[in-house]
Amino acid sequence: MSFNFPLAFFSMLIGSIVLIFGLILKKKPTKIGRVNGFRNKHSMKNQEQWDFSQKVFAKNLIKFSWIPFVTSVLGFFVNEQNTPWGLWGVMTSFLVCMASASFKTRNRINSEFDKRESN
Prior knowledge:
The protein is an all-alpha fold. It has helices at 5-25, 47-64, 66-71, 74-77, 83-118. The model has no long low-confidence stretch (mean pLDDT 82).
């Protein structure tokens, strides 16, 4: 069993990027934008929902950034011939991380603002 350094490094790099992006988003964008931040029809409805969604998404990114870090352990178990499969695992972990953060954020926005609208 050999250590696959490129695969482990790539996993740690992706996890670090997600973590840094979450920390950057904590300093919320000041106004609703089409380029940066968590964007969907509910988050872009008004400034209050935009600010709330950016804070929640940043927290969720930080919370789920461990998923790509854990896949760096794959580097210990993936030999050189199976590197493409390992890279698929790394990319899948990134997609799971982003999908989890997005899903949790969207549910939180819906529950928070649906409650307010019904009152």
